[in-house]
Automatic annotation (TrEMBL):
Pfam families: TPR_16 (PF13432). The lineage of its organism: Bacteria, Pseudomonadati, Pseudomonadota, Alphaproteobacteria, Rhodobacterales. This is Pilus assembly protein TadD. Gene3D superfamilies: Tetratricopeptide repeat domain. It comes from the Bacteria. InterPro entries: TPR-like_helical_dom_sf.
Length: 280
């Protein structure tokens, strides 16, 4: 009687083992797919972080063609085009990203930045208006400030610049932009204060140093500010100050500043020499 039961039980055991084997194969396949997906994500992040922008564009173009449903690759292509200085070409790609079911609010913000870099301010404003008001990030308010600037909505711009500067641990860039906005409005003292504040966060930001000199020279204060600078930077800042002085009719002062710039620069300072020759 025992032998009679052995065969059915072996069949049951075989079926159970077969089921386990199928389940394990499916589980292994899912694990491999997960690892492959993580590898793709890591590769995409690496291409964005360290790769040459042109190489990244090539990589993401091919990856997007091979995986048309993966938003990660379309987003990577759009960002790579931006990094490569081709914002106009990134706009249609960002539009595809924004239309994807898995799109994020930040994708619309980056689309707005692509529009701004393409000098399409109306579309940038529309893209930002489509971002939920609860989505509050440094980049969103930085771009909102720039759009308000373009429309000469100064109070609105100041408000957005202030919010943006409070949402980042590295506010030098946005403070410099805010200062330049003040400079274009003729608020030279306000601009000077913001450039100095930007330099307190990033003493190496040459754009802020140059803008600070512009703000001071516009007030006919023709002495260099007490900020950290190299010898070459000192010569370039003297040159900037000289040009402002000449433009404002202070030709003699401008000539002296050009001579100082030429004497300060460790190599031949072609731009300053050309300007001085033109004065003579």
């Amino acid at each position: 009687m025992r032998k009679v039961w052995i065969a059915p039980m072996c069949l049951v055991g075989l079926a159970f083992l077969t089921g386990c084997s199928d389940g394990m194969r499916a589980q292994t396949a899912r694990a491999i797919d997960s690892v492959a997906e993580i590898d793709q994500e890591n590769m995409a992040e690496m291409m964005l972080a360290v790769s040459d922008p042109r190489e990244a564009v090539t990589y993401f173009t091919n990856a997007s063609a091979a995986n048309p449903d993966r938003i990660m690759f379309r987003r990577g292509l759009a960002r790579s085009l931006m990094r490569a200085g081709n914002a106009e070409a990134s706009v249609p790609v960002w539009r595809e990203v924004v239309a994807h079911p898995e799109a994020l609010p930040d994708d619309r913000v980056e689309l707005a930045e692509a529009y701004i870099r393409s000098n399409n301010w109306a579309e940038a404003e529309a893209a930002l208006n489509a971002v939920p008001p609860t989505f509050e990030t440094y980049n969103r308010y930085r771009l909102e400030a720039m759009v308000a600037d373009s429309r000469q909505q100064w109070d609105r711009a100041d408000s957005f610049y202030e919010i943006a500067s409070g949402l980042t641990a590295e506010p030098a860039g946005v403070l410099n932009n805010w200062g330049y906005s003040k400079l274009t409005r003729g608020d030279h003292r306000g601009a000077e204060r913001l450039f100095a504040e930007a330099l307190s966060h990033d003493p190496d930001l040459f754009t802020a140093k140059n803008n600070l000199v512009l703000a001071r020279a516009a007030q006919r204060r023709y002495e260099l500010p007490l900020v950290q600078m190299t010898q070459i930077e000192r010569a370039e800042l003297l040159h900037t100050m000289a040009l402002v002085a000449i433009r404002q009719g202070d030709t003699r002062t401008g000539r002296g500043l050009l001579e100082d710039a030429i004497a300060t620069h460790p190599q031949h300072f072609e731009a300053a020499a050309t300007a001085l020759a033109a004065l003579r």
